[in-house]
Amino acid sequence: MTRASRGRAASAAASAAASAALVLALTGCAAAERDPAASVQNEPAGTAELEGQLTVFAAASLTGAFDELATRFEQLHPRLEVAPITYDGSSVLATQLIEGAQADVFASADERNLATVAAEGLIAGEAGVFAANVLEIAVQPGNPLGIESLDDLVETTASGAAPIVVTCAPEVPCGTASAALLDRGGVELAPASEEQNVGAVLSKVRAGEADAGLVYVTDVQAAGAEVEGVEIEGADAATNVYPIAALTGSANPEAAAAFVEFVRSPEGAEVLASFGFGAP
Amino acid sequence: MPIWLLVPAVLGGAVLVLPLAALLLRLDWAGVPAAMSSPAALQALSLSLITATVATLCCVLLGVPLAVVIARSTPAVAAVLRTLTTLPLVLPPLVGGIALLALLGRNGVLGDSLAVLGLRVPFTTAAVVIAQTFVALPFLVITVEGSLRSIGTRYESVAAGLGAGPFTVFRRITVPLVGPGLLAGTVLCFARALGEFGATALFAGNAPGVTRTMPLAIYTAFNGAGVSEDTAIALSLMLILVAVAVLLVMRAWREDATR
């Protein structure tokens, strides 16, 4: 059985190589179509020539911001390619890293999930915080149910039923923060669904399947006109602080360290701020 | 047939047909070509086709010999083997994903041996293929084994009596006779591999271009991370078309078998 599965793993590895080649070809085409704004001129003096690939695991709430950061980082280092970033709930990503997923950098939406990964000896060097975020209530455009506070989430509306509310699961940072705020306000909410990442909560509200969802300020901003955000009184009490770290299993440690540094640089802070993130 | 049976029968039909009809209505047909050719869709599509094809090959290579062994075993042994083979078919695929992690994960039973060899399986494209093979293999084994038992051993005995060696018998008699069943099993197997989600999500994860197959891309679209919903619905349409094609092939095979 062992030998059979090894053989299978070997043949699968061969197939992986083949499909990786194809994927590389595909992403190569995509990269060729990208705006070739990468110029050597805007490379700061003294930057070591980084090359190869960089794999980043990032919290779902970082989606837009980290795509932008990756693009800029590639422009600074034309010979380096950042693989499409894997976004998911921080606890999902932490589990995958602990189970052996290969990545160079991990950006979590809370200290706890980074600590879980660090406890397995997977963090190289120091983790540094780079952003902060607070929760808001995402509602349908125009706020038809007139939701103004956490209390309104459990009040029966004109239709005679409580609003359909979706939150993050308690394991993921947005869920931890949601639970903290609801406890603080003494609100006993029974969510219609607990999602594994904040993107899933937002898309339920966006699709009109839920009346309200607890998401970050940055998600409401990213969704544009599709949802409306309602500020939560005292949301600062459950501020999420985002840490980032290079990983020990990295095949490209110099690039990993440089990316962490870039995210925490003034330029990185500027990009994050443009997506609505606060300073840590 | 009592006439009132028509009421629940119509309801039953509606339960099966209406959701898919609604999905087709929701499709923005004009936008399908664009949605299908978006980078995210093409990436998921090509990854799915490659992994499902490789998994199907693995299934044929491993499954046909296993089916032969089961079909030619004593009834007691065959019953045990059949149960073990069918188990992954009945199990929720998520359990399969956890089981694969328990065997091949970093902290799994074989984790250390794999690490020594410098092999890392979970969350790679190889993991996608292994997950698909695990869930699809029973389909092939069961179909081929059924075919083998229905053709019996008479032709093989005659060929062996005329002096053919075991391998010649297998190549010239067994494989051609079992051909239609093998085709049906292979097609079923491919369809199952293409639609595999649960085991893949746990064992291979959801990294774009590496492990994000069509089902994971569809799931991701509804989680609002990196794949548009139009793309997801277009991918769903493709999976439906594949399923329809599979049914047509299976039907042809059944007619062939019952002729």
UniProtKB/TrEMBL annotation, chain A:
Keywords: Metal-binding, Molybdenum, Signal
Gene Ontology terms, MF aspect: metal ion binding; molybdate ion binding
GO terms, biological process: molybdate ion transport
Organism superkingdom: Bacteria
Span of the signal peptide: 1-32
Keyword Nucleus: no
InterPro entries given in the database record: ModA (IPR005950), ModA/WtpA (IPR050682)
Annotated binding of molybdate, by residue: S61, S90, V198, Y216
Family, similarity comment: Belongs to the bacterial solute-binding protein ModA family.
Annotated NCBIfam families: modA
Name of the protein in question: Molybdate ABC transporter substrate-binding protein
UniProtKB/TrEMBL annotation, chain B:
Membrane topology value: Multi-pass membrane protein
GO cellular component term of the entry, any: plasma membrane
Residue ranges of the TM segments: 47-71, 83-103, 123-144, 173-194, 232-253
MF GO annotations: ABC-type sulfate transporter activity; molybdate ion transmembrane transporter activity
InterPro entries xrefs: MetI-like, MetI-like_sf, ModB_ABC, NifC_ABC_porter, Sulph_transpt2
One Pfam family recorded for the sequence: BPD_transp_1
Signal sequence residues: none
Locations listed in the record: Cell membrane; Membrane
Keywords: Cell membrane, Membrane, Molybdenum, Sulfate transport, Transmembrane, Transmembrane helix, Transport
Subunit structure: The complex is composed of two ATP-binding proteins (CysA), two transmembrane proteins (CysT and CysW) and a solute-binding protein (CysP).
Role summary: Part of the binding-protein-dependent transport system for molybdenum; probably responsible for the translocation of the substrate across the membrane. Part of the ABC transporter complex CysAWTP (TC 3.A.1.6.1) involved in sulfate/thiosulfate import. Probably responsible for the translocation of the substrate across the membrane.
UniProt record similarity statement: Belongs to the binding-protein-dependent transport system permease family. CysTW subfamily.
Name of the molecule in the record: Molybdenum transport system permease
Organism: Agromyces badenianii
